Hints:
By secondary structure, the chain is α/β, with parallel strands linked by helices. It has five helices and eight strands, in the order αβαβαββαββαββ. It has helices at 13-19, 39-60, 95-109, 138-151, 171-182; strands spanning 25-28, 64-68, 115-120, 122-124, 165-166, 168-170, 190-194, 200-201. A four-stranded parallel beta sheet has the order 1-2-3-7, sandwiched between helices.
Amino acid sequence: VGDLTEPLLGVADEQIAALRGSIDHVFHLAALYDMTASEERNELLNVEGTRHAVALANALEAGTFHHVSSIAVAGRYDGVFREDMFDEGQRLDHPYHRSKFAAERIARTETAMPWRVYRPAIVVGHSQTGEMDKVDGPYYFFKAIKRASSVLPSWLPLVGPELGDTNIVPVDYVADAIDAIAHRPGLDRQAFHLANPEPQRCSD
């Protein structure tokens, strides 16, 4: 159990000493995902929280540090943002995007051990059950469609703005992909986009 706001995540020195050298993998996927959160809150939890997680992994002399980042690091990059790209001078207009970029930089530069980075697209519920522990992001869009469909006649087509493509992936796909990549040899110091190879249209 750890606290993102505490140095070394608040893990006691005695526990670190007892575990040192015996941890093969550290998975850091604790973060704030709230598009309404302030710059300060994103900085505290996403940036400093990652710094504390990396410091703990270093103190534990862990084998590999696995950092769950986000496709948000691409910001407003114009064009294809590949897995081997990171700091391309992209615009990062939103506090969340800036915090994920800064956190990934920490994972890449401050770890004393090999690292791997995972950049999921928009994560939604389980592909079989639909179960999700947090309703946000695209779920608000779904609710708006449901409300409109209950008010308007069924024969009336809904016309909306052309929003282009989006990329949605189920949470079990993301978990399975991280598990598979994490245990495959020869993939250190690389980033992996956990995204749908066929982006979905926002409107037709």
